[in-house]
Amino acid sequence: MDAEQIFTTGQQALMLLLLVSAPVLVTVLVIGLVVSVFQAATQLNEATLSFVPKIVGAIAVLAVAGPWMLSTLVEFVRESLMSIPGAVG
Questions:
Q1: Is 37 exposed, middle or buried (0-12, 13-18, 19+ CB in 10 A)?
Q2: N- to C-terminal Cα distance for the chain?
Q3: Distance CA 42, CA 70 (A)
Q4: Distance from the CA of 20 to the CA of which of 1, 9, 29, 71 falls in 20 to 30 A?
Q5: Which domain range does residue 75 map to?
Q6: Count of domains observed in the chain
Q7: Does the pTM of the predicted model rise above 0.85?
Q8: Nearest-angstrom CA–CA distance, 45 and 7
């Protein structure tokens, strides 16, 4: 296995990580932005006010997109494990 194959595999893994984590991160980002605008408009400076909606949003996204995330990660690991014999010999 040469350096190019290692870097390609690493690049694929990082892109997959970004793709799988994006739905949760975007949801939490949008919820945080909305709560921050609400806090600024009403002048409520409560730190825990943004925590609960973010957790609920993240759990909702994981419930909806979780099976897709898991199947994508399992497929990548399966392909990685199946490519080991070709890379070694």
A1: exposed
A2: 9
A3: 40
A4: 1
A5: 3-88
A6: 1
A7: no
A8: 46
CA–CA separation, 55 and 8 (whole Å): 35
Cβ neighbours of residue 28 closer than 8 Å, sequence gap 6 or more: 54, 57, 58
Instruction: Give which of 33, 37, 38, 31 is closest to 53, Cα–Cα.
Output: 31
| Distance between CA atoms of residues 67 and 62, nearest Å | 8
Residue 73: CB partners within 8 Å, gap ≥ 6? 16, 20
Tokens of 43: 């002048």
Per-residue pLDDT of the chain (89 residues; tens, 9 = 90+): 788 888 999 999 999 999 999 999 999 999 999 999 999 999 888 878 889 999 999 999 999 999 999 999 999 999 999 988 887 76
- Residue pair 57/24 in contact (Cβ under 8 Å)? The answer is no
